[in-house]
Amino acid sequence: MAAPEVTHLPNLPNDVEGLRQSIRDAVVRVVGEDPRQATERDWMEALAFAIRERMVERRLLTRRQFADEDVKRVYYLSMEYLIGRMLEANLRNMGILEPARQAMADLGVNLDTILDLEDDAALGNGGLGRLAACILESLATQGYPGYGYGIRYEFGMFRQEFEPYHQVEHPDNWLRYGNPWEFPRSDRKYPIHFYGHVVEHHHPRGETRYTWENGEEVLAMAYDYPTAGYGRRNVNNLRLWAAKATRDFDLRYFNEGDYIRAVADKAESETISMVLYPNDATAIGKELRLKQEYFFVSASLQDILDRHLALGYNLDALPDKVAIQLNDTHPAIAVAELMRLLVDCHELSWDRAWDLARRTFAYTNHTLMPEALETWPVELMERVLPRHMGIIYQINHDFLEQVRHRYPGDNDRLARLSIIDEQNGRRVRMAHLAVVGSHRVNGVAALHTQLLQETLFEDFYNLWPERFVNVTNGVTPRLWMIQANPALTELLGQRIGNDWQYDLDRLRALEPYAHDADLQKAFLDVKRANKVRLANLVRERTGVELNPDVMFDVQIKRIHEYKRQLLKLLHVVDLYRRIRAGEDVAPRVVLFGGKAAPGYARAKGIIQVINEVADIVNHDPAVGDRLKCVFFPNYEVSSASIIIPAADVSEQISTAGFEASGTGNMKLALNGALTIGTLDGANIEIRDAVGEESIFIFGMTADEVVEHRRNGPNPEAILAQQPNLAAAVEMIESGFFTCDDPGTHGDLGRYLRHEDPFFVIADYAAYTEACERADTLYADRTAWAEAAILNVARMGYFSIDRTVRDYANQIWDIIPEPVAPSRTNGAA
Ligand code: BZD
């Protein structure tokens, strides 16, 4: 038993005076600067250090309580966490935003200026990574014992610039000033093995054993990021792994006297965690990517097993004390790695290990698109992870035996279900490995889960229907309402109190006031103020002047053909042509934001043509305020929180059947934007929640899209019947919007006329009709305000807290463990 002083935790004060003291001390002790000379960045760092010591205190309290209470824990394995800025979020969730603001003011520093200095932590591509960040925040907020594991990329999502029209990628050196939020844990390092070969050891009685020998080793070192819950004392942990060379590396060549080679090799081995792959919808297929996946999975599983055993549990209790969620197939190699650790390192029998693994894992699918499904050549897997390839063969063998037994003689089915795809030069299907190795598989919206069961995983669904569940995505109201939209938060507080901050369903209390004229006016005033705030930022970033009194029509998301930014662009060109022809059209600002994967030529072409059209439209004196078009550069979490509260209209116009869920759709609707959308992903559930009167649905359904494709689409025939659309396409392909090289848009014309793989042309008439419905409603300010207020009031279902409860109850079987005001520590 440790002495009382040893178990004591500091319990720092959270009032203005206490904070001021901590911050002033930190400038000297941590930053190493004289307070008289400290810069704004020095103060930012000092403030961050003052918060982080308070966070770690609660983190330790939380950990003690979880250990005392014997809780079951969930571990979220994700290659991506799109966190954004941490300072304001941490201040708010720790409940010290206002005292800190005052403390900084006392020190002569404006908090808002400081908040703006922070770089986004952009360790993700888009929806999948942002969902992971929302889930961690909600786990802490609801008091669930939940931990994130991922990679500490040195370079996150690239910074996007336009030069002047096309996208240029710049490295995101987010760690260049160091990072006050992380705790490097040099005591938490695990060896990660690559290459080499497997040796079999036959035992006369009992199973054959395997050892994995030679090859290379790198170390995975932990960096901890405490994650505070809102309105609670729980602080959970996100553990990110960085690659470090082993000592062996050093010794090998230093001893041979090849100093330069030694240093180069050391650096090479540390590239594993260097950079996030900026692809959001294609499988990457590079050896380094496979190594990244295995690197973070192996480190995380070793850590999980260490903790499990250190807490005194035996391995048979694994599924009772541990749930592991695989965020897409990126960590799916975990199924084989856990088998390796249990069988080879802990010497469990194969069957026992398999039972434990399957009951521990669950897998979330985020896409149906074939090009995004990860498959690895058997030859590559054999070379990089030879032991795992053997384990996968064994898993597949056992699995196919089961299938044979159930469907004798059905060889086609065996080939379809097999973890190894024999058709395309032998590849490992990671999605199949994930389904076979998990007790639950979920899609991320009702339609998506249904389509998973009917298409991608049809054969698996027939085999194990009970394994498939839906968990519709959600968003955290702490970031996407309280932080992003303080004006609306304040208004909601005045009208219905603040309970909705903990239980978003309580927004429904707003419904009875939807036609209250005072509320409508206040609501529209808030929206206008948010539009002014955005207009200022747009002026600063692009020089374009926006009129806050016209409709702000917003499409912000990754650039992809299926998301159909081209559909919105055709509408812009159509409106522009009609304005020039003297027609009277409803005025609007169209704002695009989003990045294209660097190797995705079509997406980059879409960015370029939008920028070119915008440049002409915005400078045409004949247009004035009736139409403005902006491509907001470098769209990221921090700019999203300015754009979203300012949107009147939310564009969710993907080809039906392609967007798994969407979460931008939820953020925008929650902030009072009305959706123009297809019946795709979670749009369907949003329509069901908000009602037909608050959403503009258009276009082909997922079934109709399939039917349309089967019938052989004919965009030329459609164009022949729609003069406005035809004129817009002609205007683009004629080179009207390119000054230098009129040929560049010819290709886009050909693409729309002859390929149009995502049916932009086929859905165009329905789309513009939906836009006109929106224009008509927008012109009636009272009717619009009422629809928008109802929209907000009915969005409670899309809280990430509901999503996390669904996972906890349907998949993880964990319960909340709120941290009590300290018993061990006597803290208030
Ligand atoms: O996941 C997205 C889907 O496209 C959205 O419909 C859905 O709402 C979100 C959250 O479930 N998928 C991604 O964001 N995918 C990626 O970012 C990604 C990253 C690496 C490799 C492949 C895909």
From TrEMBL:
Essential cofactor(s): pyridoxal 5'-phosphate
Coiled-coil region: none
Positions of post-translational N6-(pyridoxal phosphate)lysine modification: K667
SUPFAM superfamilies from the UniProt entry: UDP-Glycosyltransferase/glycogen phosphorylase
GO BP field: glycogen catabolic process
Keywords: Allosteric enzyme, Carbohydrate metabolism, Glycosyltransferase, Pyridoxal phosphate, Transferase
Stored Pfam families: Phosphorylase (PF00343)
GO cellular component term, pick one: cytoplasm
The family this protein is said to belong to: Belongs to the glycogen phosphorylase family.
Cited function: Allosteric enzyme that catalyzes the rate-limiting step in glycogen catabolism, the phosphorolytic cleavage of glycogen to produce glucose-1-phosphate, and plays a central role in maintaining cellular and organismal glucose homeostasis.
Protein name: Alpha-1,4 glucan phosphorylase
Source organism: Thioalkalivibrio versutus
